[in-house]
Amino acid sequence: MYDKISKFFETEYPLNQHGIDELLSLFQKKKFKKGELLLKANTTEKQLRFLNSGIVREYYANSEKETNINFYTKPQFVSDLFSFSNDSITNRNQEALSDIEILTIEKAPFRALLLKYECGKSFIDLSFQKLLKQKELLEYNRVTKSPEELYQELFIYKSHWLEKIPQYHIASYLNITPETLSRIRKRIS
Asked: By its UniProt entry, which InterPro entries does this protein fall under (predicted)?
Protein backbone atom coordinates (compact mmCIF):
# COMPACT_ATOMS: atom_id res chain seq x y z
CA MET A 1 0.00 0.00 0.00
CA TYR A 2 2.86 2.41 0.74
CA ASP A 3 5.28 1.42 -2.06
CA LYS A 4 4.38 4.28 -4.40
CA ILE A 5 4.30 7.00 -1.77
CA SER A 6 7.61 5.76 -0.30
CA LYS A 7 9.20 5.86 -3.75
CA PHE A 8 7.74 9.34 -4.30
CA PHE A 9 9.40 10.65 -1.15
CA GLU A 10 12.70 8.93 -1.93
CA THR A 11 12.91 10.57 -5.35
CA GLU A 12 11.01 13.87 -5.01
CA TYR A 13 11.37 14.92 -1.36
CA PRO A 14 14.03 13.04 0.55
CA LEU A 15 13.10 13.04 4.24
CA ASN A 16 14.79 11.26 7.12
CA GLN A 17 13.67 7.64 7.51
CA HIS A 18 12.04 8.18 10.93
CA GLY A 19 9.97 11.03 9.51
CA ILE A 20 8.90 8.96 6.51
CA ASP A 21 7.95 5.97 8.67
CA GLU A 22 5.89 8.12 11.00
CA LEU A 23 4.26 9.98 8.10
CA LEU A 24 3.31 6.76 6.32
CA SER A 25 1.77 5.35 9.50
CA LEU A 26 -0.69 8.26 9.53
CA PHE A 27 -2.08 7.68 6.02
CA GLN A 28 -5.32 5.82 5.46
CA LYS A 29 -6.38 4.15 2.22
CA LYS A 30 -9.59 5.29 0.53
CA LYS A 31 -11.21 4.25 -2.73
CA PHE A 32 -13.36 6.41 -4.98
CA LYS A 33 -15.53 5.23 -7.85
CA LYS A 34 -15.40 6.81 -11.29
CA GLY A 35 -17.39 10.07 -11.20
CA GLU A 36 -17.05 10.71 -7.46
CA LEU A 37 -15.77 14.09 -6.29
CA LEU A 38 -12.65 14.25 -4.15
CA LEU A 39 -12.75 18.03 -3.75
CA LYS A 40 -15.54 20.53 -4.30
CA ALA A 41 -15.16 24.26 -4.93
CA ASN A 42 -16.12 26.63 -2.08
CA THR A 43 -14.88 24.21 0.57
CA THR A 44 -11.65 24.03 2.53
CA GLU A 45 -9.14 21.28 1.80
CA LYS A 46 -9.06 19.15 4.96
CA GLN A 47 -6.85 16.27 3.84
CA LEU A 48 -3.55 15.75 2.14
CA ARG A 49 -4.26 13.19 -0.59
CA PHE A 50 -1.79 11.02 -2.49
CA LEU A 51 -2.98 9.31 -5.67
CA ASN A 52 -1.92 5.67 -5.52
CA SER A 53 -3.70 4.57 -8.70
CA GLY A 54 -6.25 5.84 -11.21
CA ILE A 55 -6.95 9.16 -12.93
CA VAL A 56 -8.15 12.42 -11.36
CA ARG A 57 -9.22 15.53 -13.23
CA GLU A 58 -9.00 18.98 -11.67
CA TYR A 59 -11.24 21.72 -12.99
CA TYR A 60 -12.94 25.06 -12.43
CA ALA A 61 -16.69 25.31 -12.90
CA ASN A 62 -19.35 27.95 -13.09
CA SER A 63 -23.01 27.70 -14.02
CA GLU A 64 -22.16 27.69 -17.73
CA LYS A 65 -19.12 25.44 -18.13
CA GLU A 66 -16.30 23.40 -16.66
CA THR A 67 -12.68 24.02 -17.63
CA ASN A 68 -10.08 21.34 -16.94
CA ILE A 69 -6.83 22.64 -15.47
CA ASN A 70 -4.94 19.44 -14.70
CA PHE A 71 -5.03 15.66 -14.81
CA TYR A 72 -3.28 13.36 -12.36
CA THR A 73 -2.35 9.98 -13.82
CA LYS A 74 0.68 8.92 -11.81
CA PRO A 75 1.39 8.57 -8.08
CA GLN A 76 1.59 12.08 -6.64
CA PHE A 77 -0.12 14.45 -4.24
CA VAL A 78 -3.44 15.73 -5.58
CA SER A 79 -4.57 18.09 -2.82
CA ASP A 80 -5.05 21.83 -3.22
CA LEU A 81 -1.95 22.63 -1.15
CA PHE A 82 -2.75 26.33 -0.86
CA SER A 83 -6.19 25.65 0.63
CA PHE A 84 -4.78 22.87 2.83
CA SER A 85 -1.91 24.96 4.22
CA ASN A 86 -3.77 28.24 4.64
CA ASP A 87 -7.22 26.99 5.68
CA SER A 88 -8.64 28.90 2.73
CA ILE A 89 -11.54 28.19 0.40
CA THR A 90 -10.64 26.38 -2.81
CA ASN A 91 -11.94 27.25 -6.26
CA ARG A 92 -11.01 23.81 -7.59
CA ASN A 93 -13.01 20.67 -8.10
CA GLN A 94 -11.50 17.21 -8.40
CA GLU A 95 -13.28 14.20 -9.88
CA ALA A 96 -12.24 10.57 -10.27
CA LEU A 97 -12.08 9.81 -14.01
CA SER A 98 -11.59 6.14 -13.18
CA ASP A 99 -11.85 4.08 -10.02
CA ILE A 100 -9.01 5.39 -7.86
CA GLU A 101 -7.12 4.56 -4.71
CA ILE A 102 -5.99 7.46 -2.54
CA LEU A 103 -3.90 7.65 0.62
CA THR A 104 -5.09 10.43 2.94
CA ILE A 105 -3.85 12.15 6.05
CA GLU A 106 -5.85 14.61 8.10
CA LYS A 107 -4.59 18.15 8.63
CA ALA A 108 -4.00 18.07 12.42
CA PRO A 109 -1.71 15.00 12.55
CA PHE A 110 0.15 16.24 9.47
CA ARG A 111 0.80 19.64 11.05
CA ALA A 112 1.97 17.99 14.26
CA LEU A 113 4.43 15.94 12.22
CA LEU A 114 5.73 19.10 10.51
CA LEU A 115 6.47 20.61 13.91
CA LYS A 116 8.30 17.47 14.99
CA TYR A 117 10.52 17.11 11.90
CA GLU A 118 12.21 20.10 10.29
CA CYS A 119 12.39 18.24 6.95
CA GLY A 120 8.58 18.34 6.85
CA LYS A 121 8.73 22.09 6.38
CA SER A 122 11.01 21.62 3.37
CA PHE A 123 8.39 19.28 1.87
CA ILE A 124 5.76 22.04 2.02
CA ASP A 125 8.18 24.70 0.73
CA LEU A 126 9.37 22.53 -2.18
CA SER A 127 5.80 21.53 -3.02
CA PHE A 128 4.74 25.18 -3.23
CA GLN A 129 7.74 26.07 -5.39
CA LYS A 130 6.94 23.24 -7.78
CA LEU A 131 3.25 24.17 -7.85
CA LEU A 132 4.00 27.83 -8.61
CA LYS A 133 6.43 26.88 -11.36
CA GLN A 134 3.83 24.59 -12.99
CA LYS A 135 1.12 27.24 -12.73
CA GLU A 136 3.33 29.91 -14.25
CA LEU A 137 4.30 27.63 -17.14
CA LEU A 138 0.66 26.69 -17.78
CA GLU A 139 -0.43 30.35 -17.78
CA TYR A 140 2.45 31.34 -20.06
CA ASN A 141 1.70 28.52 -22.50
CA ARG A 142 -2.03 29.25 -22.60
CA VAL A 143 -1.39 32.93 -23.39
CA THR A 144 1.47 32.57 -25.87
CA LYS A 145 0.79 29.31 -27.72
CA SER A 146 -1.88 28.21 -30.13
CA PRO A 147 -4.12 25.24 -29.32
CA GLU A 148 -2.20 23.24 -31.94
CA GLU A 149 1.13 24.01 -30.25
CA LEU A 150 -0.34 23.10 -26.87
CA TYR A 151 -1.61 19.80 -28.27
CA GLN A 152 1.81 19.05 -29.76
CA GLU A 153 3.37 19.61 -26.32
CA LEU A 154 0.86 17.18 -24.80
CA PHE A 155 1.70 14.71 -27.55
CA ILE A 156 5.42 14.97 -26.71
CA TYR A 157 5.42 15.40 -22.92
CA LYS A 158 2.13 13.92 -21.72
CA SER A 159 1.20 11.32 -24.32
CA HIS A 160 -0.22 9.15 -21.52
CA TRP A 161 -2.95 11.80 -21.08
CA LEU A 162 -3.95 11.40 -24.72
CA GLU A 163 -4.20 7.62 -24.24
CA LYS A 164 -6.08 7.57 -20.93
CA ILE A 165 -8.25 10.72 -20.82
CA PRO A 166 -11.40 11.24 -22.91
CA GLN A 167 -10.84 13.67 -25.78
CA TYR A 168 -13.59 16.06 -24.67
CA HIS A 169 -11.67 16.55 -21.41
CA ILE A 170 -8.46 17.18 -23.36
CA ALA A 171 -10.33 19.75 -25.48
CA SER A 172 -11.53 21.50 -22.31
CA TYR A 173 -7.96 21.54 -20.98
CA LEU A 174 -6.82 23.17 -24.24
CA ASN A 175 -9.80 25.56 -24.05
CA ILE A 176 -11.11 24.48 -27.46
CA THR A 177 -14.11 22.54 -28.71
CA PRO A 178 -13.90 18.78 -29.29
CA GLU A 179 -14.39 19.45 -33.01
CA THR A 180 -11.38 21.78 -33.11
CA LEU A 181 -9.33 19.15 -31.28
CA SER A 182 -10.39 16.58 -33.87
CA ARG A 183 -9.20 18.86 -36.71
CA ILE A 184 -5.87 19.46 -34.91
CA ARG A 185 -5.36 15.73 -34.43
CA LYS A 186 -6.03 15.09 -38.14
CA ARG A 187 -3.52 17.77 -39.19
CA ILE A 188 -0.81 16.42 -36.90
CA SER A 189 -1.19 12.73 -37.80
From this structure: cNMP-bd_dom (IPR000595), cNMP-bd_dom_sf (IPR018490), RmlC-like_jellyroll (IPR014710)
Residue 53 lies in a domain: yes
Terminal CA-to-CA distance of the chain, rounded, Å? 40
Low-confidence ranges of the chain (pLDDT < 70): 1, 9-19, 118-124, 128
Whole-model pTM above 0.70?
yes
Residues 128 and 158 in one domain: no
Residue 40: phi and psi, rounded to 5, are -120, 140
Beta strand extents in the chain (DSSP E only): 28-32, 37-39, 47-53, 56-61, 66-72, 76-77, 93-96, 100-106
Residues of the domain holding 45 = 3-134
Could you tell me if residue 87 is inside a domain? Answer: yes
